Amino acid sequence: MSRPVRWVTAFTGSSPGVDPGYADAVASMGRHLAADGVGIVYGGGRAGLMGALADAALAGGGQVVGVIPEALVVRELGHRELTRLEVVADMHERKQRMATLGDAFVALPGGIGTLEEFFEAWTWLQLGFHTKPVALFDVDGFWQPLVDMVDHMVAAGFLASGYREQLIVADTPDGLLSALNGWRAPSGATDGRSPA
Ligand code: AMP
Fold it and tell me: N or C: more exposed end of the chain, with fewer CB within 10 A?
């Protein structure tokens, strides 16, 4: 079973990265999603690549929903021009809400916050708590060291190759969107419910 991808939950850096090419690639993804009528759910920040993604999608006429914990809004880190900014109590509620709203999870370049969110989404898929595709948008080989580590885990017997094969790695917005829409949940997976 799979569902049409109408909302993508995006994880990406609150920093811009040293190379302006990261922001360009992330903005291009934002424009692409907007042009395809795919909304973005993300962490609600205005800094770094998060802001670049949201701004580009909004400028392209797309819908962007931010989900941000109260503590970060108070520190004025929230983006004020979004389609909707949902303010939640804490990080746990944020991740739960972001997981519920999106039809797919995509990690764009980022730091440890991005990694943590990506791995949680992928782990939940492995456990059968949801049946939504999980992807890496691989800008200029940014995610290759992580992909190598994942392949190393398979070789070392800590990750079943079937779970590795479920992971989408794409380096263009077109390639990513078509992989998300062509993805099929593993047979026997249960749907919908993520751990509270
Ligand atoms: P990082 O990759 O460490 O920069 O963290 C980015 C991820 O963590 C994003 O996907 C957000 O969900 C969350 N995050 C980190 N910093 C912020 C911030 N200043 N405002 C909103 N969300 C943030």
Answer: C
